[in-house]
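Sequence in, structure out. Go.
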Amino acid sequence: MLKLTNLRVWVLAAAATGMLASCQKNGQMPALTDADQTTSTKTIKTLAVSLTQGFEVGSTSPKTAYDVSPTGSSSGDNVTLSGSSWNMYDALIGNLAADQKAGSWSARVRNTGKITMLFDVTTGISTVTIKSATYNGDTPSTWGLFYSTNGGSLWTQSGSAITTTATLATSTFTITQTGNVRLEIRKLTGGSNRINIDDITINDNAGGGTGGGGGTVLTGKKFLFDASHLENAGSADWQIDADGTEQVAIYTGGTTTETKAQRIPTPSYTGITSTTTETYWKGALSAWAVELVKRGELVESLPVGTAITYGGGGAQDLSNYDVFVVCEPNRLFTAAEKTALMNFVANGGGLFMIADHTAATTAGTDANGYNPSDRDGDGYDSPRVWNDLMTNNGINNNNPFGFNINYVDINESPSTNVYTGSNADAQKVLNGAAGTASKMAFYDGSTATLFPGNNSSVQGLFWRNSATNGGNANAMALLATYGSGRVVWIGDSSDADDGTGDTGDSLFNGWSGDAPSGYTSHSSFHLNASLWLAKAQ
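Output:
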């Protein structure tokens, strides 16, 4: 399609073609090649994940009995998980209500059963994390982790035996072996009492450089992307992966068919390698999620119909995650959800808040002729949803994160008015492990006003080019801490859009496809901010 690089021409052309509902703004810019990218990448020491196994096997378990043939065989049964062969003796993969699991499935082991890798990781092992629990209704047992450097001929125990608890608990083992290594998990005591094993994560020991300001990036952090507040309404598609469809209200009345996110992205994240493209998953936020997985983090979606909770003990309770990402919510949070969000952050969680453009009223058009981003027509768009959280949460209604979103619609092409001070948190977001974030473009977005008197930690990161650097007005992105948790806000959703997803929507590549080359550094900003929120850098 015609490539418009002059902003004024672009805006007029967009208005003329009637693209009024989208903030994934009107057409897909050509993607940059690797050679076009000018965003710098830091040389850092990364605890890279070389293997993860969460026992997520789809709708049917490959091993439903402890030993299939013959029963009680000392050799167990071999199963293929994520393309690799494992042996399971006196063990199966279950999804009963009594199975303690981080996803839909986990391994269940009885007697002196074991789970053995029949392959080596070739880049060594620095550390291993494993989740375990007592099968509900049984009494605790102990288990141990063993490793072999000679193909399974000899085994050495790593650390001490672990005693299971009623709920999943994470155990960390330091192995520090180079070259070929494989693992075996053995149930050591407890007789017929059963245990569950889940989320095995191996961090490699291949080394890496140091320096660049990024430090060590911690892996295994869990990111939950919200899909429960009509993030797919209208022409938006703020999902990391969607395999189904649903009818969603649209601002012009009636409904449209939109793609629907599920909890676990498919195919499995265990198939992602350093060369995997973002089209591995289908969603406008898939590039973001795939890049997080490449850095050793874990991602899920909160599906529509699932309430946001904290401390309730459910499988997707926010207490199970490090960061909650909410990109342009189109429905107000309930009173209970607002309480959950505030407590999640206060108790150490990270909240990534993404808004979009709006106007003084959601009735009628904004100053540029666009409809405000109330995509489902209920009278609330994302700036109003976020302001409601910060002024009507029942815990602290006085902008507790230190800012308020302005009801405006701006374009900036791009802003280079970036924070230059010494705030350590700001420097991690702007100059972190994913590179330097120095340019931010808005394609119809909102700004924020800072209130450091309400929260002294609030720090602007980008401002409009016409604004005062370091000032409290016209911020395009910011961060803050609250309690022991962290918050990042950005006023435009297009910057996270990778240009792919629901084929029925008008998608735009603001993640990496801005023109000309080096026009923005959106991916660096979002990834650095994600790692900072997760306390991973």
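Check: DSSP finds six helices and 28 strands in the chain. The longest strand covers residues 106-117.
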